[in-house]
Specification:
Belongs to the peptidase S8 family. It is built from ten helices and 17 strands. It is α/β, with parallel strands linked by helices. β14 and β15 form a beta hairpin.
Length: 414
């Protein structure tokens, strides 16, 4: 991920951007699993998100989810035919002829749109939206890649996330997953996020994996792009659906999803187990894809509201900084989206929308949209209209599986 300014070495950098996976101490990468063992290992997540019930309504057909990450292996048997390889914004950092590892990106893509393999697709990884397509946009390097140092230090690689967002929007993405994080907001990223929202694209990002670290004000660090207004910031829960100890807790968190011991695909038909807000973010991006498949014209604020209003395991009082409005439930989110489909929010992104014009042929009328505040949770229309506004700069570091994928100007950890 990117830093707030020019990248420097991890640890000394003011704004290290990292992948949203597990801290090394908290999330040991287990041995690769056999393909026929994988689906059983997914059952807890499938049940928590109520995917079988959701799939009666939508499987994500016709939706394009951009995965801004380290690259996706399009040949993995659980993703074959569903991946379009897009632009590599890291090009030139690695020596010519270097094959990118693409571990983290493949892992995230499988959680979003894996379709399994074998008879009736019953082996391997099944994603939340198995009929959705993936656009792979490479915006980070993993630390074992030879160009890692160059990528972290060269000025030309600054703002690759902002460029990746704009590229994904222009390529027709309906949802953008960003299982990445950084500590400082930049003008270019704010503008890119505002652009995406104005075009109706849902942005989902990992809240970060520094939940064991408090900053002034008694909350965990903010990370970006998750903390930008208009982005669905996702925290991670453990097997008991409580906040995972590594998951950032602050007022940016909108919803949560499982993030501990999550099965996923790796390059070369491998399978991995990991933990982090990266995985939680990918699962929520899959739910957003289910909604967009059913309601293609639904605006980002309403998609976010559908997921938040229908969340289960809600905290006392309805909201807290640990899991936001609760754990996303795909089946209930689709039902709530259907209810909201006849309404329109008063604004989206930089462009106000006519409140008298209905969405998808439904009845007109403004609908309130969730707004997150540090000290209180209120509900406002047009949360996305503030996507270009300034955001609080703070510290955030995230991890990729057991390895740190760091970058100064683009370090990784989530």
């Amino acid at each position: 991920m990117l830093t707030g300014g020019r990248g420097r070495g991890v640890g000394a950098v003011v704004g290290v951007l990292l992948l949203a996976a597990a801290p090394a101490a908290a999330g040991t990468l287990l041995h690769p699993a056999h393909a026929d063992d994988v689906r059983g290992g997914q059952q807890a997540v499938i049940e928590t998100l109520k995917l079988p019930q959701a799939w009666r309504t939508s499987k994500g057909a016709g939706v394009l989810v951009a995965v801004l990450d380290s690259g996706v292996d399009p040949g993995h048997r659980d993703l074959a035919g569903s991946v379009r390889v897009g632009k590599d914004f890291t090009e030139g950092a690695n020596p010519p002829g270097t094959t990118p590892s693409r571990l983290h990106g493949t892992y995230m893509a499988s959680l979003i749109a894996g379709h399994g393999h074998g008879p009736q697709g019953k082996r391997g990884i099944i994603g939340v939206a198995p009929e959705a397509d993936v656009l792979s946009v490479r915006v980070i390097l993993e630390d074992e890649e030879p160009g890692f140092r160059e990528f972290n230090s060269a000025e030309r690689f600054e703002n690759v996330v902002a460029k990746g967002i704009r590229y994904a929007v222009d390529e027709g993405a309906d949802v953008i997953n960003m299982s990445i994080s950084k500590e400082l907001a930049t003008r270019e990223e704010r503008a890119a996020i505002r652009y995406a929202i104005s075009k109706g694209v849902v942005l989902v990002a990992a809240a970060g994996n520094r939940g064991d670290r408090k900053v002034e004000g008694d909350f965990a660090p903010y990370s970006y792009p998750a903390a930008f207004p208009g982005v669905v910031s996702v925290g991670a829960t453990d097997g008991e659906l409580r906040r995972a100890t590594f998951s950032n807790w602050n007022s940016s968190v909108l919803v949560a999803a499982p993030g501990v011991d999550i099965m996923g695909a790796g390059p070369g038909d491998e399978y991995w187990v990991g933990r982090g807000t990266s995985q939680a973010s990918a699962l929520v991006s899959g739910v957003a894809a289910l909604i967009k498949a059913r309601h293609p014209r639904m605006s980002p604020p309403l998609v976010a509201r559908a997921m938040a209003d229908s969340a289960t395991d809600r905290p006392p009082g309805g909201y807290d900084t640990a899991t936001g409005f609760g754990v996303v439930n795909a089946a209930k989110a689709l039902a709530e989206a259907a209810r909201l489909a006849g309404h329109t929010e008063t604004a989206a992104g930089a462009q106000a929308q006519d409140p008298a014009r209905p969405l998808a042929g439904g009845q007109a009328g403004p609908v309130k949209v969730i707004f997150r505040d540090e000290r209180r949770v209120t509900v406002y229309a047009a949360v996305a209209a503030t996507a270009g506004a300034g955001a609080l700069a703070s510290l955030a570091v995230i991890f990729i599986l057991v390895r740190r994928v760091r970058r100064a100007s683009m370090a990784q950890d989530a």
